Amino acid sequence: MLLFRYSALTFNGHRIHYDLKYATEEEGYPGLVVHGPLLATLMAGLVRRQAPDRQVTAFRYRAMRPVFDTAPFTVGGRLVRDGAGADLWIADSSGTLAVKGGVDLA
Fold this sequence. Notes:
This protein has 3 helices and 4 strands. By secondary structure, it is α+β, with helices and mostly antiparallel strands. It has a single domain (2-105), classed as Roll (Thiol Ester Dehydrase, Chain A). It has a 4-stranded antiparallel sheet with strand order 1-4-3-2, covered by helices on one side. Strand 2 and strand 3 form a beta hairpin. The longest helix is centred in the middle third of the chain and has 15 residues, at 36-50.
């Protein structure tokens, strides 16, 4: 449901994000593809929850490999540069890095 709603919110009509039959049978994916921007939103949400009093002054991310709805994934992060920033990542169910990113904090 989240993938479908995020597609609607972002006006992304690509069926790989909400039509399982299309994603698997037509495109050959093992499941629905989780949006890169949705993964970025989840990483930003982690920062907001863990450092609610901090202001994010810069945000960056890079997708390294696709994430599918067929298995759980992990959103992680750690403070760096004496708390002036945070490294962020998404790892798939095998622990392989799928998305890496970071923020600068004020």
